[in-house]
């Protein structure tokens, strides 16, 4: 049997970050939103005792380790351990989501492995049970299993789905290089005054439910943006270029360095991407829509 999962990237429409906790993490209040940029995760049956084998390809696979340090491999072992089954599977990940870019590319791969092996190994666990395993792997992994749109609290692992009543149009401006999420958190704690408990803006949920792009734009915010700009000042030029080119709003996505812009419609997104590609200091642009969800295909 072969199971292939297309798993989407995520953006944070809003990301509010509380002060550091005793365990070193931060409480979050965020609106996760999955968008139509996908990694493809394939899981194949193998002989008993083979273990977990991973191969990587695609435009963003270069330089990634395919060993036990890879989150996809760790996800296979975590699910096997939780289910009490042997961790025997051949995995292939086609990387179209940039790495360390604020788009949860590694989390998407881990989620794809959980969804694929859940079917391959005949577990048929419901999504809430899979998200319990996902939460042991990383703060963004539970949402990557779920997809769509959701409010995230705690470290981001406590989710409340939001039903979006239409399609939103986005442009991702993917920067050269990477930003380390722990480094951005450390910089955030260095540069800001005492932070209170994180709270979402009033009205953002209703705006998402209506897919009201101007109202969503008015709520977009990211507490980590100042830290990301401190570490990568060139991102300010990208944000300025997008806003000047007609984006309804633009912010750094998560810990960056990708910048995400909300457009009024599909043609507006295409025009915005063209301007950014010509004028902004970014590696590439991606025109995407949301919400998106993981899809599972089974072949015997």
From TrEMBL:
The active site is at 10, 140. It catalyses: 4-CDP-2-C-methyl-D-erythritol + ATP = 4-CDP-2-C-methyl-D-erythritol 2-phosphate + ADP + H(+). Belongs to the GHMP kinase family. IspE subfamily. Keywords: ATP-binding, Isoprene biosynthesis, Kinase, Nucleotide-binding, Transferase. GO terms for biological process: isopentenyl diphosphate biosynthetic process, methylerythritol 4-phosphate pathway; terpenoid biosynthetic process. One of its GO terms (molecular function) is 4-(cytidine 5'-diphospho)-2-C-methyl-D-erythritol kinase activity. Residues 70-148 form the GHMP kinase N-terminal domain. NCBIfam families: ispE, PRK03188.1. This is 4-diphosphocytidyl-2-C-methyl-D-erythritol kinase. Pfam families: GHMP_kinases_C (PF08544), GHMP_kinases_N (PF00288). InterPro entries: GHMP_kinase_C_dom, GHMP_kinase_C_sf, GHMP_kinase_N_dom, IspE, Ribosomal_Su5_D2-typ_SF, Ribsml_uS5_D2-typ_fold_subgr. ATP binds at residues 98-108. Its EC number is 2.7.1.148. Catalyzes the phosphorylation of the position 2 hydroxy group of 4-diphosphocytidyl-2C-methyl-D-erythritol. Pathway: Isoprenoid biosynthesis; isopentenyl diphosphate biosynthesis via DXP pathway; isopentenyl diphosphate from 1-deoxy-D-xylulose 5-phosphate: step 3/6. Transmembrane segments: none annotated. Residues 206-278 form the GHMP kinase C-terminal domain. It is an enzyme of class 2 (transferase).
